[in-house]
Design a protein that fits this description.
25% strand, 10 helices, 13 strands, alpha/beta
Length: 287
């Protein structure tokens, strides 16, 4: 019996990764100038970021229910075991929809084995979980072992990120405007995190150097054996900044393994161009 992994689009891994590892991929929707796109499939990050820089106000939608249903049906019909690693339920309705579809599928296929995991993660944090679970399944781990890994990493994943303009997040309701720091003025740089899957501001800094110093300090405080980890770094059309952060983390904290990817439109539409996100574990999985 094969373990089939379904990856939510906001895992922000390259499309080629899903294809090469035979994963189901559920791209979320991006609506730009009244036209619907599938994130990273029919619209690329740079196109969206350039549009936002020019004043466009895109919106997003959760993964198409018919795509989730089709993946469930194929797994059920093949009598395989499925694990759907879902974008944080605090930021999307996909988890609730997937649970509903699972219950419907069980009526037709009573032996259907599907675990829907609310990772409480986004972007590179979710991507690290998808890759770790895929690798564990490919090494022959059991269904229960892969689920245990997914839930452990979901519980212990830390996210730190910064944006160029907090108005994007506040406008989309991902963080209350009253909570948002004033950004975009006087070179103010915010540092934010995810708590229980929702966006929470940590602090603000005048200038990039102070922000990066604080970033290193926060990683040191929160990470478990950071030099032994693979650290995820995701960027919204600002690869040069992402590489600068990567070199700093490598130099200051001794990290040797990185996963550098590009933030997709389903998150980028709310975070905006210039966003940098870092993910790592606050407790390593040693089982």
């Amino acid at each position: 019996m094969t373990i089939r992994i379904i990856a939510d689009g906001p895992s922000d891994l390259p499309i080629t990764y899903f294809e090469e590892n035979n994963l189901f991929h559920i791209p979320h929707g991006v609506i730009l100038d009244g036209k619907y796109y599938q994130d990273k499939v029919t619209i690329q990050t740079k196109v969206l970021m350039d549009a936002m820089r020019a004043g466009a106000v895109p919106t997003t939608s959760q993964g198409p229910l018919n795509m989730i249903q089709d993946a469930f049906k194929q797994i059920a019909a093949d009598k395989d075991q499925g694990i759907y690693l879902v974008f944080s339920s605090s930021l999307s309705g996909t988890y609730a929809s997937a649970q509903m579809l699972k219950e419907q599928m069980l009526e037709e296929y009573p032996d259907f084995q599907m675990e829907v995991v609310d990772t409480k993660c986004a972007s590179t944090g979710l991507g690290l979980i998808v890759k770790a679970c895929t690798e564990k399944a490919q090494l022959g781990a059991s269904f229960e072992e892969v689920i245990a890994l997914a839930k452990y990493m979901s519980t212990h994943m830390e996210h730190l990120f910064t944006v160029d303009n907090l108005d994007y997040i506040a406008r989309g309701g991902r963080m209350k405007r009253s909570s948002a720091f004033v950004g975009g003025l006087l070179n103010i740089k915010p540092l934010l995190t995810l708590e229980n899957g929702g966006i929470v501001p940590l602090d603000k800094f005048r200038g990039k150097k102070k922000l990066y110093d604080a970033l290193i300090e926060k990683i040191s405080e929160r990470a478990d054996r950071i030099s032994e980890q693979k650290v995820g770094i995701c960027h919204a059309d600002c690869l040069e900044d992402a590489l600068e952060v990567k070199d700093l983390i490598a130099d200051k904290l001794g990290v040797k393994q990185f996963e550098i990817t590009e933030i997709g439109g389903s998150i980028g539409a709310h975070a905006g161009p210039g966003t940098i996100a870092i993910a790592f574990l606050n407790k390593l999985y040693d089982k």
